[in-house]
Amino acid sequence: MLHVSPFAPPDVPLSGLPTRIRRKAGLWRWRAPVRIATAILLLAAPLVMLACQSDERTAELERGDIEDLLADYLPRFAEAYRTGNVEVLREVASEKELAAMTKQISDLMSQEGRVIDPTLESFTVEQINVWNYSNAFVTTIEVWDLKVLASGSETVLSEVEDQRSRVKYQLKRREDGWQILSRMRETTFE
Q1: What is the DSSP letter of 1?
Q2: Residue spans of beta strands (DSSP E) within the chain
Q3: How far apart are CA 58 and CA 142, in angstroms?
Q4: 108: closest CA among 83, 87, 89, 91?
Q5: pLDDT, tens digit, 9 for 90 and up, residues 88-143
Q6: Of 131, 132, 128, nearest in space to 169 by CA
Q7: Fold type of domain 62-189
Q8: d(CA 165, CA 141)
């Protein structure tokens, strides 16, 4: 019986062989690469899982630093809205975040003639995802008391107490710790 190697190159002539052997040889040509790819995937899967676990461990190790950053950032965030001065965020936020805050505050003050006076009641870190050691997504639940004032006066236009929101942050590790790249309110609970 003629044996055709599963590793035979595709240009080996099969034309003189019986149909049954040609079919079997053709299948073997595809089976070898599939088996090799399967073996590689099976060997790589534990490494990928180990990498994910190390990021989970990193997230737990970084939890304290990230909570400290947010505890420092959130009162500054409130002050920036209250005063219109985003420079108070410079130590903890990126240039991109400062630019976004400047636009939001100036739009609110100039176009709508309003100032928001927020007071942070509490925040809870709901989830931390760290990857590649230097990037993180953080989800928080924040509770704020908000006063909306007419710009240039102390006249209260509206007031909301205990507004709960789910907020997502993107963080980047710098030499001296974490920095906020962006903040996005995802949901406000009624």
Answers
A1: -
A2: 114-131, 135-150, 156-174, 177-189
A3: 24
A4: 83
A5: 999 999 999 999 999 999 988 887 788 899 999 999 999 999 988 899 999 999 99
A6: 128
A7: Nuclear Transport Factor 2; Chain: A, (3.10.450)
A8: 6
- Residue written as tokens 């595809």? 30
How far is it, in rounded angstroms, from Cα 86 to Cα 99?
9
Place of tokens 């920095």: 179
Q: Name the pTM for this structure.
A: 0.69
| Cα–Cα distance measured from residue 69 to residue 113, given in angstroms and rounded to the nearest whole number | 31
Using CA atoms, how far apart are residues 110 and 100, in angstroms rounded to an integer? 15
CA distances from residue 38 to 41, 45, 61, 121, 132 in whole angstroms, order as listed = 5, 11, 35, 53, 27
Q: CA-CA distance, 70 to 153, in Å (whole number)?
A: 30
- 70: its two tokens: 């947010």
Q: Amino acid letter at 155?
A: T
Structure tokens, 162: 């205990």
